[in-house]
Amino acid sequence: MYFAEKTRTLTGSAYFDNLFEEELKDLNFKARNGIITAAERTRMREEIIVDNLLKQFTKGLVEIDGRK
Fold this sequence. Notes:
Helix content is about 55%, strand content about 15%.
């Protein structure tokens, strides 16, 4: 069994868009100006949030042997 060990705790808002506001502002600008489609914005938003959460909030995976 594996679990992710965290490096820090979320403070304030748990709404992920607030955590990565600068990256997402740029993404929204591109979508509003027709540089990328709405579908591309959705996919890229998910990638930004997941990648940044993994990089900033997880230390690594820990393996636990569940057998007795």
